[in-house]
Structures are given as C-alpha cells and as structure tokens.
Amino acid sequence: MSFLDRMDRKMISMTAMMEKVGVDIDRLALSRGGLDLADAIRTCRGCGAGDVCVDWLARAPGHVAHAPAFCPNAGRLERLKSV
Q1: Cys bridge to 14: 44, 45, 66, 79, which one at CB 3.0-4.6 A?
Q2: Which residues of 65-77 are buried (b: 16+ CB within 10 A; e: fewer)?
C-alpha cells in the first residue's frame, strides 16, 4: 500500500471516529484556525493501530460515548466534542 493510500485510509478512519463520538468536524475545522484539527490529523497519521481502528470502526455501533482506549486521539476527541 502506498503512502498516500495509507494516509487516505487514516483520514477516512479519523473522520469515522470523530462522527462516532460526536465531534462536529466542520466546526472543528474552523476552531483555532484549524489547529485542533491539524493536531488530530498529525496524531492519527503517526498511530500504529490502523488495522485495529478499521476493525473497531466496522464493528462499533453508529454512535459511542467515547473513543476506544487504543486511539491516541481519545482524550483530544473528548475535549473536542464541545468545540
């Protein structure tokens, strides 16, 4: 899998994770000039749990209260729900 394919897969997973935990991505993109979103993207990009994430997203219900513990953005996503 090429680098761009891996990044595309991660961004799809990150978007799905944000939607599942209730983060408003459009508002987040405008928050602090996009810095919060950029930080989340950098964290996701460096995460080594891509396959675990894809599997979890496929099995998780439509909405969940919290991101799973393996997600390095879990704490950030919790804070960003109110952005």
Answers
A1: 44
A2: eebbeebebeebb
Tokens of 56: 């979890």
Q: How far apart are CA 62 and CA 32, in angstroms?
A: 28
Among 38, 64, 47, residue whose Cα is nearest residue 10: 47
What whole-number distance in Å separates Cα of residue 39 and Cα of residue 32? 11
Amino acid at 17: M
pTM: 0.90
The angle subtended at Cα 34 by Cα 30 and Cα 40, nearest 5°, is: 120
d(CA 39, CA 63): 23
pLDDT tens string 20-46: 999 999 988 998 999 999 999 999 999
Q: How far apart are CA 5 and CA 11, in angstroms?
A: 10
